[in-house]
Amino acid sequence: MITIETYEKLNEYFKAFGNKQLNLMIVVSRGGLGKTFIAEEALIEHGPLSFTGHVTPMSMYKEIFIRTREEKDFILIFDDVDTLFNNKTNVALLKQICDTREEKTIKYNTSSPMLKAVPSEFETSCKVLMLMNSLESEDKDMQALMTRAHLISFVPSDIEILRHLKTFGREKDILEFINIYAPFSKKLNLRIYRRAEELKLAGLEWKPIVISELDVDKRLFEINFLLTKYKSDTDREKNFSESRSNYYRFKKLFLAKNPILAKNIK
Questions:
Q1: Beta-bridge partners for 120
Q2: Dihedral of the CA atoms 163, 32, 13, 77 (nearest 10)?
């Protein structure tokens, strides 16, 4: 497995895949990190055939056949299709589609009128990209695919996610707010910013949702509030919800991760 920690490196792999030199690539990361959007941006010029969510075996077989008639070595993307592996027929098709040979034979026998004009087998050279939020490596069928794939684990830090956010985020106050708390979180994702942006544009309070979804200790939020509102530690510790020692402990922790703010705090 290849571990990637930056968006720049992930984009390099998607572009390399777009050159059709990689037969099968599986990218795994938690949801909300933007892997789908990055893949689409990198591969859009190739006009990939994409399957998202629930896919039936017949529809998959038919769509792949139709596309193969137009272009034999097209790019095929399976996005967020973890449920595919719950269907044995889908799994059987996937194994054929992900065969390591350059030209693969795909077979599907059915009496369904839906596939009346489609042959029971055909050949394709399609390249396959799978985007997944999790990987159940104990599953035997998944293990079989993993041995054939360039397997990538995308694990950016919250700081790296924030850096990427700043390349397209327009609401500077939201970005600055996230910037303060990202060092204390391991749950930042691009959707948090999107939801905060929607709330702000709707004239609603957005800061609590950011704190909640980042899963940051609320005492850090309180410390930031006290540092902003009061000019002396005497007033701050007096208004802190916990003990004096905890005030100084969390103040030290907060400022250690926010050196720019620390310069302006007495």
A1: none
A2: -150
* Domain 2-154: top CATH class: alpha beta
CB-facing half-sphere around the CA of 15: CA atoms within 13 A: 6
Tokens encoding 149: 């794939």
State whether residue 201 is helix, strand or coil.
Answer: helix
Characterize the bridge pairing of strands 150-154 and 24-28: parallel
State the Cα–Cα distance between residues 33 and 46, nearest whole angstrom. Answer: 23
Average pLDDT over residues 152-170: 92
pLDDT in tens, 66-120: 999 999 899 999 997 666 777 778 888 888 898 888 899 999 887 777 777 888 8
pLDDT tens digits for range 14-61: 999 998 888 899 999 998 999 999 999 999 999 999 988 778 888 888
Structure tokens at 3: 């571990």
Longest dimension (CA), the chain: 81
CA distance 33 to 192: 10
Locate 195 and state its tokens. Answer: 């939801």
Question: Measuring CA to CA, which residue among 92, 86, 77 is closest to residue 132?
Answer: 77
Residue of 46, 49, 64, 22 lying closest to 152 (CA atoms): 22
Angle at the Cα of 32 (from 158 to 52), degrees rounded to 5?
155
Q: Residue 261 pLDDT more than 90?
A: no
Cα separation, 118 vs 253, whole angstroms: 64
Q: Average pLDDT for residues 204-228, to the nearest whole number?
A: 91
Q: What are phi and psi of 169, to 5 degrees?
A: -65, 135
**Under 8 Å between Cβ of 54 and 11:** no
Q: Which residues partner with 26 through β-bridges?
A: 130, 151
Domain positions in the chain are 2-154, 158-262
29 secondary structure, DSSP code: -
